[in-house]
Amino acid sequence: MTLLDRLDEVVYEDGKQCVIAITGGGGKTTTLIALAQYYKNRGLSVLVSTTTKMQNPSHYRFEVDHVMTDEKDFFNHEVKKGESVLFVQKHIMNAKKCMAPRDEILPLISKRFDVSIFEADGARCLPLKKHRECDPVIPSSVTAVIAIGGMSCFNKMAADNCMGEADMSKKVDVKYLQDLIDDEEGMLKRVNSDHKSVILLNQCDLLRQEDLDRLRFLVAPCPILLGSVEENTTY
Fold first, then answer.
1. CA distance 56 to 235
2. What is the pLDDT of residue 94?
3. 3-class SS shares of the chain: helix, strand, coil, % to 5
4. What percent of the chain has pLDDT over 90?
5. Quick one: which of 32, 22, 21, 47 has its CA closest to 112?
6. Residues of the chain where predicted confidence (pLDDT) is lower than 70
7. What percent of the chain has pLDDT over 70?
8. Positive or negative CA dihedral for 143, 6, 16, 21?
9. How far is Cα 205 from Cα 167, in angstroms, rounded to an integer?
10. pTM for the complete prediction?
């Protein structure tokens, strides 16, 4: 079974609208693109968007059928099965980024699609994150959360690889990751019992077997997957 199959097992329920928030660091956008293609290939209608900021589709390939930044055009668009649509607002100050649609319409836009996938966090291109007060941004309409951590930083210094980490002495090891799972500001911040949640430790193709074996000792109130989104593989 592929990694995307495993994620699908957790977050999607046949016949019900699925609204996924992707949080953390170390592969959010890659996972978003892969999942959007996965569900599109299954004949479902797929929305791609953000609740914070994301890369401007003019500068980044999202592999979707339609890119829309105008609300009127979006709501006039006839959604079709097997189609993917990216809907965001233009960022006034930064041409390389796009902004979330207005809060008032977030529940409305996801109701139009079988699957909606929101990038709901920002980590400044770092593989791990300790959250601030304002994030992640998980709307009430979300049904599933994929919390991602990139394992390219395993055995490296945490302050260089985890957004929000101020302690210069800590290293990213199993204890550090367990603390990040348990921390109120860590990987599962704003994830609740109503969400179909999963922790994805991405980039595991970069690790040695002994490191993978250590990661299997991690515990969480939701499934933990060791995998590689780029390889679509679990370990």
1. 32
2. 85
3. 25, 25, 50
4. 92
5. 47
6. none
7. 100
8. positive
9. 27
10. 0.96
Task: Tell me the pLDDT of the chain averaged across its residues.
Answer: 96
pLDDT at position 93: 81
- Which three-class secondary structure state does DSSP give residue 92? coil
Q: Is the dihedral of CA 195, 18, 36, 112 positive or negative?
A: negative
| b/e sequence 113-122, b meaning 16+ C-beta within 10 Å | bbbbbbbbbb
Q: Let me know: does 40 contact 46? Beta carbons within 8 Å.
A: yes
Strand spans (E) along the chain = 18-24, 46-50, 53-55, 66-68, 84-87, 89-90, 97-99, 115-119, 128-129, 144-150, 162-163, 196-202, 224-228, 233-234
Please state, in angstroms and rounded to a whole number, the distance separating the CA atoms of residues 91 and 156.
34
Q: Which two tokens stand for residue 28?
A: 């959010």
Structure tokens at 203: 């980039």
Q: Where are the beta strands (DSSP E) in 25-163?
A: 46-50, 53-55, 66-68, 84-87, 89-90, 97-99, 115-119, 128-129, 144-150, 162-163
Enumerate domains of the chain plus CATH numbers.
3-227 (3.40.50)
